[in-house]
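FAQ

Q: What does a record look like?
A: Structure on top, sequence underneath. For example:
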């Protein structure tokens, strides 16, 4: 088993800007349990063994190697919860299904775990879905590295994900990934669903407070507006 060591702290900020400011997997006693640590080896793991194993926190699988994920701090968690709230509000009007930290099979030996995913029309039925969702959302943690984010986004794009979003609570910035790479935007939109999400920038100088998400389309504003 190859365990990827802790990456150095990297404050993600090198993105093109169009604006001025720019679980634990449920424990089951019959399954093995692994706590990730900084030690790395070269032994590759079969995907079947990975799927039988519970990691704390859950980890991704890339071509035989276990890739640990940054579990995030309070701003990361707050943005994820807010995104889920928005998607569940959207579910009242459209056939969408929100999932968080769900293992997804992008290829036979490649399993990624986006922070948030949104499926449209059909609810996923596979334990590890192999059909691409409509939206994947990754939320920046302070330990994330730019190159790793871009690699994962390119994999999502090749898999067929229509909307690939990045929410950065540290830079208080939203970005989308597409033909032109990663680009900072003023809002995240799904026009067919009447959804538009903006980031409310805090006035505090404390970056740990992060950004708050709000919806600004009248169709879904309602009680979803940030207090």
């Amino acid at each position: 088993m190859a365990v990827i060591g802790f990456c150095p702290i990297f404050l993600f900020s090198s993105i093109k800007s169009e604006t001025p400011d720019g679980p634990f997997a449920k424990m089951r006693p019959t399954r093995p349990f692994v706590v990730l640590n900084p030690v790395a080896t070269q032994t590759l793991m079969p995907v079947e063994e990975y799927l039988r194993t519970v990691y704390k926190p859950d980890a991704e699988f890339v071509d035989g190697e276990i890739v640990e994920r940054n579990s995030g701090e309070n701003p990361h968690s707050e943005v994820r919860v807010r995104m889920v709230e928005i998607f569940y509000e959207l579910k009242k009007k459209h056939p969408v299904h929100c999932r968080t930290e769900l293992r997804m099979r992008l290829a036979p030996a490649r399993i990624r775990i986006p922070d948030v995913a949104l499926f449209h029309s059909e609810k996923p039925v596979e334990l590890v879905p192999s059909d691409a969702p409509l939206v994947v959302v990754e939320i920046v943690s302070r330990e994330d590295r730019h190159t790793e984010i871009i690699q994962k986004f390119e994999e999502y794009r090749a898999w067929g994900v229509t909307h690939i979003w990045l929410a950065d609570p540290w830079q208080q910035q939203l970005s989308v990934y597409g033909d032109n790479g990663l680009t900072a935007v003023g809002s995240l939109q799904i026009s067919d669903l009447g959804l538009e999400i903006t980031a409310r920038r805090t006035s505090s100088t404390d970056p740990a407070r992060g950004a708050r998400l709000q919806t600004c389309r009248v169709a879904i504003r309602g009680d979803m507006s940030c207090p």
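Q: Is there anything notable about this one?
A: The radius of gyration is 18 Å.
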